[in-house]
Amino acid sequence: MFTTFTAGDAGSWQILRITPVTGDSLAPASHLAVAPVATLPAASAAGWPLTGVASHVRYVERTEKTALVAVQAGLGRPDATLAALIPIRKSTAWWELTQEERRRIFEDKSQHIAASMKYLPAIARQLYHARDLGQPFDFLTWFEFAPEHAQVFEDLVGMLRATEEWRFVEREVDVRLRRAD
Questions:
Q1: Backbone angles phi, psi at 96, to 5 degrees
Q2: Kindly report the CA angle at 131 between 97 and 68, in degrees rounded to 5?
Q3: Based on the number of CB atoms within 10 Å of its own CB, is 85 exposed (0-12), middle (13-18) or buried (19 or more)?
Q4: pTM of the model
């Protein structure tokens, strides 16, 4: 099952802003619909669809996975009325590294998992893989949080963007949202 994020004039999330962080932006839109789909959607004149698949976690060791599962919150919490969709594409240099080399940068040097743990469960998150689907981004990162945790989310994003891992990001767009329901 795929998950598609479709920008347009309707959707359960109101787009507050679309900010290109690195590389090209995405086209403006007022809303975002998030839906599971059985097949990859075709491009639409109504807006941009981005599709990914939630897969098994990568670059984690058993103790890290156990710790994450113990503290992470699920998506769809009623109080989590703010969200962020941050699509990311990494460079060819990243993908030319072996999995072990990527793991060393991801965790040993950047502390992606260990440093992120302190932001859970305030921030709920899901990573969608898109690279092998022919999408314009490698990853679609989805975060949900309550308004009182907005600064916590800014701290998390700032911390991640300052890591060695982010030197390999060649395109990143930050889409901020508010539940429209």
A1: -80, -15
A2: 75
A3: buried
A4: 0.91
**Per-residue pLDDT at 46:** 59
Gap between the Cα atoms of 37 and 40, Å rounded: 7
CA atoms of 118 and 153, how far apart (whole Å): 11
Backbone angles phi, psi at 25, to 5 degrees: -85, -175
CA distance 93 to 161: 18
Pairing mode, strands 124-129 and 139-145: antiparallel
Q: Enter the DSSP assignment of 63.
A: H
Query: Residue 157 has what pLDDT?
Result: 96
Q: CA–CA separation, 18 vs 28, rounded Å?
A: 7
How many Å apart are CA 92 and CA 107, to the nearest integer? 20
Q: Mean pLDDT across the chain, nearest whole number? A: 90
177: left (phi over 0), alpha (psi -120 to 50) or beta: beta
Across the strands, what pairs with 31? Answer: 8, 14
